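Hello Y.,

Per our agreement to keep a running log of every chain we model this quarter, I'm adding this entry. I've kept the format consistent with earlier entries: sequence first, then predicted structure.
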Amino acid sequence: MAKYAAAIDQGTTSTRCMIFDHSGNVVCYDQKEHEQIYPRPGWVEHSPDEIWERTQSVIRGALNKGGLSASDIVAVGITNQRETTVVWNRKTGRPVYNAIVWQDTRTDQICNELAADGGQDRFRAKAGLPLATYFSGPKIRWILDNVPGAREAAEAGDVVFGNIDTFLTWWLTGGPDGGVHVTDVTNASRTMLMNLETLDWDDEILGIMGIPRQMLPKIMPSSMVYGTATGDLAGVPVAGILGDQQAAMVGQTCFDPGEAKNTYGTGSFMLLNTGTKIVPSKSGLLTTVCYKFGDQPAVYALEGSIAITGALVQWLRDNLGLITSSAEVEALANLVEDNGGIYFVPAFSGLFAPYWRSDARGVIVGLTRYVNKGHLARAVLEATAYQTREVLDAMEQDSGVKLTALKVDGGMVYNNTLMQFQADILGVPVIRPKVAETTSLGAAYAAGLAVGFWSNTDEMRANWGVDHTWTPQMDEETRARLYRGWKKAVTRTFDWVE
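Predicted structure for the entry above:
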């Protein structure tokens, strides 16, 4: 009887369950979107109850589509939108507030207050992160400060915190009835509360942030058996947890120092494996945990996070109505030969790496009467490639490693126009693997590794194959001129919010 590894991939806009065979091929999957809640400008929320309901639904859907039952699954792994913060009652499972999503900027004031003493890099030496609205710590603090009774309940141990991985693992293993309250090192490294060296919560930071330690999950490796699933996966070991970008690193088999990948999703995230060495960034990148398999040492990464890439195409569709589906953006962009002199900097929720400017807001610059919707579509696609180039430059500066090729994954890698421009503006080949669902695959690998379905990373590497390579076709002078224009455009976004 063939056996399979399952992954629950809980993303910013949807949840899916994917089931893989031993060769890393997708056997079946199911996917459902969930509601994006925008109570005020800059605020972004999700319903944790809806996410859990969707998770159960896609597990059932995937098993049904594949004609499988729980007994066919050796293990299930979880990968998740990182930093999105849930605080819930451990007796009832009810959230005390909606999940505050990673893109949400309401904690701006908390971050500014914390930075008043010690600056934006106050916790960087320990946590690897700048003070920014992006991370979970300030979001927990906001909930404790603004939801009546939340702080008292947290101090009493009745109310607990988790990023989405923790919330789903807790429910999957029984919820109020014996659910395990754990997270893995990759998700913990995105809270701003974990010490990168000890891989444990940092008491000094917790004290400064005003977060009770008893509400936090136990930090575990990314690959090990945490507990046993209930419900449709009853009896299946829950054995892998990885934040989505780290899961993509594992799915892309970037196991050697110097290997890098870029995932194009709602935002884009480029990671560079730095091995067992913690590399502090001087160029605006994040130092993060890449993965930790069982009792092996933790592997670290440098990360460049870009807030808005795929979300910009959705904005063109939903807010402006210039296209009716995301796939149409390529045809629209191909109606013109170039960007017509315009740049679109999508600083909708400030700028992430390498700037970390929460005062920035989006701009379109260089507009003339000549510009039409084709130019706008092209500028939308090019914004993703330029932002990726900025992150790559910062990585090379910090690590001293010159990138020779970029492995890519995520929804936008099927847009040939974007991928060709990406290769052109980077000046290195861009490589798409055969299985582009690398985030889900990484979570399945972590879970399967823990139960011996895959015996080592070499077996995973053997599954990886090239689907398509784009090589640079742009001359150096054009590349430099276009990139100069982009850098100038970015400066126009600064200091907008006072």
